[in-house]
Every structure is written in C-alpha cells, then in structure tokens.
Amino acid sequence: MDDKQAQRDEESSSHPQAGRERMILPQPISMLGTGNPGTEKTMLQRMSAQRVFMMGDNPALPRMPRAPKLLDFFRLRFTEIAFRHLLQSAKTALAAGQDEKIVIACLLHDISNGALLRTEHGYWSAQLVAPYVSDEVAWAIRYHQALRYFADEAVGFKYPDAYDQFFGADYQPPEYIQQAHREARAHRWYMTSRLITIYDTYSFRDDWCVDPEEFTDIIGRNFRQPREGLGFDGSPTAHMWRTMIWPNNFL
Ligand SMILES: [Fe+2]
Ligand SMILES: [Fe+2]
User: Fold this and answer.
1) Ligand 1 centroid vs 121 CA: distance in angstroms?
2) Which residues have CB atoms below 5 A from the ion given as ligand 1?
3) What span, in angstroms and rounded, lies between the C-alpha atoms of 52 and 56?
4) According to the model, what pLDDT value does residue 8 have?
5) For 62, which of 48, 76, 96, 250 could close a Cys bridge (C-beta 3.0–4.6 Å)?
C-alpha cells in the first residue's frame, strides 16, 4: 500500500460513516429559485446501504478543534473574501484610533457571510455573536446592514459606489430597511453602527493581509469565548456555530 492510500484510509476511518459514500444535500435555502428543485428527490432515490447522507466531519474540510474559538472559524471555515474583509475593517478602525468596542464590531460585522448566510447578513451576524458581546456591539452590527444604504455626509459617509455595481444604480432599499435606518438614526448607539459602515467602505483590498492574531487581546476583552467552545456552550446561538462546524449534515 502506498503512502497516499494509507493516508486516505486513515482519513476515512477517522471520519464517521466509514467505508460508505456520503452524499451532501445542498441546503434548501441555497437551492430555492435556482431551477434545481429535483435534487432532494434524486438523492433520496440513490440512498443505499453503501450510500448514506453525510453526518459529522467532512474530510474535505479542515477539522475544527473540540472547543473552537472565534479565530478558528476565521481560519478554518470562512471564505477568503470574508476573512480578509473583516480583518481589514477591524485593522482600519484600530489604526484610526477607535476604541475596542468599534474594533470588535468591525471584526464581527459581516461574520454570517463567512460561512453561514449572506442574505440579511446584519441580522444574522448580530444574532450569532449576541451571547458573547455587549448589547451595543450586537445592536450596531444588526443596524449596519440598513445604514450602508443611507449617506450621512456630516460624518463623511456617502452611498457606496460598490452598491451601484452590486445592485444597479437605480436600486432602492425596501421599506423595512428604510424603517431600520430611521430607528437607528434616532438611537443613542447610532454612531457605533455608523462607524462600522465608515470602516467598511475601504476594506476590499486583496493585496493586504492582516494577521488574525493581532486581535487576540481585543477579542479576549470584548468577546466572551465559552470554555466549552463555540457551538457547545448551550447558548441560544450554539446551533448556528455547529452549523458552520458541520455544514453538510443532512439533519
Ligand atoms: Fe455588511
Ligand atoms: Fe462589510
């Protein structure tokens, strides 16, 4: 047996459902509207003793530590673009002399885009981190989604050029986003959320690598990492972290 074969055997025996083909059904939400409605039925028909639906560690993904911390998700799960964007935003806020609550808010603001969901990302991101950050930081992350659509010239924020490219120059945000913007404007934490949008603007460079370790101390002081690891602490969002650890589970 050659080395590669030995490695493959070792790999597959250390994963669940050894010796069987493990099918991955895409999440229903990622299939809706894509013109691919038959996948679930077809895969159920292909099921056999030798072909099951994947549960647990996927060998195609790096294995997460038993008690994963925030930066483990950054390194082992997030898309490259989300990884860079969050670190660059946080670094820009830090270099501008912002205090730690702004830096941590920038570091986490689009976290759901990393490996969970893009749609409604401000709301998903806020919910994901809410058990571990201050109320103000979670609030700011929630509202940044809406604030990005509305200029505030007084503090130097204009409507992003990128949004004209993403959505077309004639795009108008829906009423619930306009309502969220009005609520945020009237709130005492408005500037916390607005600052996220300010450090967001300039942070899509792919020639600039920020080392996540730079934020270890700020995370330590502003993000309550559970001893059991994210996903295993019984918090109201633990299941969302587990979904990122095992994104291909059938159920
Ligand atoms: Fe965002
Ligand atoms: Fe962003």
Assistant:
1) 7
2) 110
3) 12
4) 52
5) 76
